[in-house]
Design brief:
- With 295 residues, the chain is an all-alpha fold.
- Helices cover 73% and strands 1% of the residues.
- The chain has a two-stranded antiparallel sheet with strand order 1-2.
- Helix 1 crosses helix 13, helix 10 runs antiparallel to helix 13 and helix 12 runs antiparallel to helix 13.
- The N and C termini lie far apart (55 Å).
- It comes from Cohnella xylanilytica.
């Protein structure tokens, strides 16, 4: 039977057979859960009862009318600010370590090391650093005579999100640096040298020659940063539990609490769908801005 088939038909059948397994896995572990999430967002369900009650748009209405939910979402933008700074520092260190700096390989390893550390271990380490009583940071401030600045960093509603944002910067900046460094090393050195010969300064060569050649990588890093900051969960969950009084709650910690603490899986699903929509909107704006800059 196979012998009677044309080569083109055999090729198409073979391709379909090879695609069956990955498509089945994608449908099982990605498409079906996503569709079920959307379905649950229109339901009232406590997570245990076999029966689900149709709620229509009530869950979405509750999400958009909840001041607590949107206050938590506003905290994510503090992380976004630190994420943009993280990208800027990663690019700056990549530019510096892409030069003939002595010992640059050792500096690369030192800056990348925080990224490979376990997230829970990092959280507990900084719990000791910023502890209000015996933390090393407050001890340093008191030793410098700056006792008034030695506050409870995780207990201050104004400071807690910035402290957590700083920790994310410390952990993930090395990853940004390595990605930018790989992109910079792919840019032909002759292009920059030609610009320097034409009279461009080092800064002008970087701004007008080097950076436009790594626009796609900058866009990728910003994409990863935005996704990470809008979905931040582990640090506030481990270090503060959303406290004090919800000051460090993020959209995702609020979603998890809604589902598993208050057993409102319908509203939690609506919050998840809302977060996905927000990510798409923010990424679309980011892509529009980076595309205009590259042009």
């Amino acid at each position: 039977m196979v012998g009677n088939m044309s080569y083109g038909l055999q090729k198409r059948i073979l391709i379909i057979l090879f695609l069956l397994v990955p498509i089945a896995l994608l449908a099982t572990f990605a498409l079906y859960p996503a569709a079920y999430l959307v379905y649950l967002s229109f339901m009232t369900w406590d997570g245990f009862s076999p029966e689900k009650t149709w709620a229509g748009l009530a869950n979405y209405k509750e999400v958009f009318e909840s001041k607590e939910v949107w206050a938590a979402f506003g905290h994510n933008f503090v992380y976004l600010g630190w994420g943009l700074l993280q990208n800027a520092l990663g690019l700056a260190f990549a530019l510096l370590l892409n030069s003939r700096l002595k010992g640059r390989n050792a500096y690369r390893v030192m800056l990348f090391m925080p990224y490979i550390m376990n997230g829970v271990a990092v959280a507990y380490m900084f719990n000791y650093v910023f502890n209000s009583e015996y933390g090393s940071f407050n001890t340093l401030l008191r030793g410098m005579g700056l006792d008034s600045l030695a506050i409870s960093w995780f207990g201050s509603p104004k400071a807690v999100n910035h402290v957590l944002g700083f920790i994310t910067l410390w952990k993930f900046m090395g990853l940004n640096m390595v990605i930018y460094l790989a992109a910079l090393q792919s840019v032909p050195s002759e292009i920059e040298e030609a610009a320097r010969i034409d009279g461009a300064s080092r800064f002008q060569a970087i701004l007008h020659v080097v950076l436009p050649n790594i626009t796609k990588v900058i866009e990728l890093n910003l994409f990863l940063t935005i996704i990470g900051t809008l979905e931040i969960f582990d640090l506030p969950f481990i270090l503060t539990g959303g406290g004090p009084l919800g000051a460090s709650d993020t959209f995702l910690t609020k979603t998890v609490a809604t589902a598993f603490k208050f057993n409102n899986f319908g509203m939690a699903s609506a919050m998840s769908v809302t977060l996905i929509a927000a990510v798409v909107v923010v990424l679309s704006v980011q892509r529009l801005v980076t595309r205009r800059w590259s042009n």
